[in-house]
Design brief:
The chain is an alpha+beta fold and 733 residues long. It is 20% helix and 33% strand.
Length: 733
């Protein structure tokens, strides 16, 4: 082993930015090898002399590093490249300057474990060196892995690579190299940052290795000195930084002996000075213009508007589908006269019930009555919500009327009049809202479907002002209509959000967003008409918002059973806060709410009483569900429900029923469902049914991934004490 002098890089840097915390965040982001943003790093390492080398020559290496995120093959990836520009001592000419070998890495980002991020992928070294003294002359392949764990005090991580040569110049030494780079970032005050990122090299071909040391006795050298200029304004988008590494070390130069006669001049000092001046100039030039700041503000606040506003946009999209594609109107009922099929493109709906929706508007008619019949000859599972899809009450046997029937009275904001006797008052803080009303099915037979529809038409919706002589409720059948309320992650998202802002009062808890929405052109009482440049920024913001929501959805699942792939449908923190009307003084889980309404709709007041849901994104082995493969779920006997259970498949991208499929689910209501001798049921999912299992088969699209939801209506104790366990879905072929 050749002992290198101090090469455990310690960095103390001040990043130029408007604020210390922003500086810390930007430097950490630029230092994090898994930052999912287009990133450019400029680094310069200057070696003033080589220890125990005649003439003590100097050397320099300038590194251009970049990072490009992508989702090729449907997987989050980070493509990383490093291109060195080296100046090295050379005998007898003095110095050689040119490009080094290009290193390419492609990290596949794995699911997070807590706050720990993992990436692994292939590595390729291209022999692009312009001189043999500054390159290997070999094509190399290998693998790279990185782990990063953000800490309150900074960043902790490691990068490991292995590379071996497989082609190239025959007379050059083969490459068989292992490297390990610990990553340590410590945030200090006022934007200062202490960093260590040593690289340990193990030459498995020659047996030599290089393990950097923090301290060394000989030559009186104790540590490296780094000078860094970090352009934080740019780093927030590109992570740009320029480093100069001043070190003394022992290093073999191209395997040759270097004498003092060979080195007559010192051009490196001029080069390093020029690079440092470039760094300072880059910092000065990175200040944002007013136009750039305005543009960045629009995009940044558009992202936050997406996360905050998606429950209301979700609601508005459903309302607009009813108003534009059917004859239905507010304070009436739109319904589907058959169990739902793929034409209903709402988010994760239930295809094993008759669906009815009553969109209410109290602004023009005052309080609105939703009259639910007693559970005699049928029953309703109902949920009544406001525009933000916060539950006002549940209806039916598991709701406030407990199956006796009831008159639910939706009151407008600020309603002060006395509520008449005989009503269940629901004080709403918005004028709009809706009731999702599911008429339960005994089976999927035509007779039972007709019976369920007939019972559902006993529902009534009318203004309280006409309660003495209620008008006949209008029912509009949407069966066969492509009712598409999937979230549109484009500029139209903000058109929907603006409609809600214009029609609804500001809630006290949301007033902080008023000025933020103004900056993206949404202001109460004013038209929303963004110019082309703002529309482009809004498009960028909504796409980033979608990526954020999808990432949180993918990584934020909470298992219902220990070490299970079945997860809670909603984060318990969100459920608690929503059921309490978001009235907790120290909590308002907007982020969790945003994620929830990116894949579902409606709110449930008594989750677990009338219904409970489990969702799974992956099979037993932890792999995403692929529509081209076949899976099996074995539902154990004695499912803990008083009504029925079902399994439904949804498109992984849209969270809606998979388009153009003959059916979307299988449930205990299916008369010809095949059971095993012990009472369990094997359900199959895939593009083709296993032979003889058509009755138990749910079709999937072979071109797309999917996810599944297991529903339990009127669940019993065995579900919640987990004495009954639903196994994971297994891949069988």
């Amino acid at each position: 082993m050749r002992p290198y002098a101090p090469a455990f890089p310690l960095l103390l840097a001040l990043a130029s930015s408007a604020g210390a915390q922003e500086a810390h965040d930007a430097v950490n982001e630029a230092s994090n090898p898994l930052t999912p943003k287009i990133t450019i790093n400029l680094q310069n390492y200057y070696i003033p002399s080589f220890i125990d080398t005649p003439g003590e020559p100097e050397a320099n290496q300038f590194l251009l590093r970049g990072l490009i995120p992508s989702d090729m093959f449907g997987l989050p990836q980070l493509f990383r490249f490093t291109l060195p520009i080296a100046m090295s001592p050379d005998v007898p000419s003095g110095y050689v300057t040119g490009l080094g070998d290009l290193t390419l890495m492609d990290f596949f980002i794995l699911p997070k474990h807590g706050d720990v991020s993992l990436g692994i992928g292939p590595l390729l070294v291209v022999p692009t060196a312009t001189d043999e003294s500054i390159g290997s002359g070999k094509w190399q392949i290998g693998a790279a892995g990185v782990v990063v764990a953000p800490q309150r005090w900074g960043l902790l991580g490691a990068l490991a690579t292995y590379q071996t040569s497989f082609a190239g110049v025959d007379d050059r030494e083969d490459v068989n190299l292992l490297t390990f780079q610990p990553i340590l970032n410590i945030n200090l005050s006022d934007g200062w940052n202490l960093r260590s990122s040593a690289t340990w090299n193990f030459n498995l071909e020659s047996g030599n290795s290089h393990i950097p040391k923090m301290f060394q006795r000989d030559k009186g050298v104790t540590m490296n000195a780094f000078v860094e200029t970090s352009v934080c304004g740019l780093a927030r988008r590109t992570g740009c930084a320029l480093l100069a590494d001043l070190r003394r070390c022992q290093l073999p130069v191209s395997g040759r002996a270097v004498t003092s006669d060979a080195i007559q001049e010192h051009p490196m000092r001029k080069t390093v000075f020029a690079l440092l001046m470039l760094s300072a100039a880059t910092t000065a030039a990175a200040a944002f213009t007013p136009e750039e700041l305005a543009s960045r503000t629009v995009e940044r606040r558009a992202v936050e508007a997406v996360i905050w506003g998606i429950p209301a946009v979700n609601y508005d999209l459903m309302l607009q589908e009813m108003l534009t594609k059917t004859k239905g109107k507010v304070n009436q009922i739109v319904y589907w006269s058959r169990p739902l099929d793929w034409h209903n493109q709402t988010l994760t709906p239930n295809p094993d019930a008759i669906y009815l929706m009553a969109f209410t508007d109290t602004k023009s008619v005052g309080p609105v009555v939703i009259e639910v019949p007693p559970a005699e000859g049928g029953s309703i599972n109902g949920n009544i919500v406001n525009v933000w899809q916060m539950a006002l009450e549940d209806a039916g046997p598991s709701g406030a009327d407990q199956g006796k029937g009831g008159k639910y009275l939706v009151l407008p904001p600020g309603y002060k009049d006395k509520v008449p006797d005989g009503y269940i008052p629901l004080q709403s803080d918005t004028f709009g809202g809706y009731a999702l009303l599911r008429s339960n099915l005994a089976s999927h037979s035509d007779a039972d479907i007709a019976k369920s529809v007939e019972y559902a038409k006993r529902l009534k919706v009318y203004p309280l002002s006409q309660a003495a002589n209620p008008p006949e409720t209008v029912f509009t059948d949407a069966q066969g209509v492509v009712f598409d309320s999937t979230i549109k992650y484009d500029a139209s998202f903000f058109t929907s959000l603006n409609r809600v802002v214009q029609s609804e009062p500001w809630l006290t808890r949301d007033k902080v967003i008023i000025d933020q929405l103004k900056s993206i052109g949404i202001e109460k009482g004013k038209p929303f008409s963004p110019i082309a440049s703002m529309t482009k920024q809004l498009e960028a913001g909504v796409k980033e918002g979608r990526e954020w929501l999808e990432t949180k959805y993918d990584t934020g699942q909470i298992p219902f059973y220990e070490k299970s792939m079945w997860n809670y449908i909603g984060n318990p923190e969100l459920v608690k806060s929503a059921q309490g009307g978001y009235a907790e003084p120290d909590a308002y889980p907007v982020d969790l709410r945003g994620v929830a309404y990116s894949y579902a709709f409606v709110g449930v007041k008594r989750l677990g009483a009338g219904q409970f849901y489990l969702i799974s994104l992956k099979d037993k082995a932890g792999n995403p569900f692929e529509g081209s493969k076949t899976y099996r779920l074995t539902v154990p006997p004695n499912v803990p429900v008083q009504q029925y259970w079902s399994l439904t498949a949804y498109d992984r991208k849209t969270q809606a029923l998979i388009r153009n499929m003959s059916r979307a689910s299988r449930s205990s209501q299916i008369a010809d469902l095949q059971k095993n001798p012990d009472g369990s049921v094997d359900l199959f999912l895939g593009s083709k049914p296993p032979e003889g299992k058509e009755a138990n088969w749910i079709p999937t699209d072979p071109k797309h991934e999917f996810e599944v939801m297991f529903r339990l209506y009127a669940p019993t104790k065995a579900l919640f004490d987990k004495s009954w366990v639903l196994p994971d879905v297994e891949h069988i072929q």
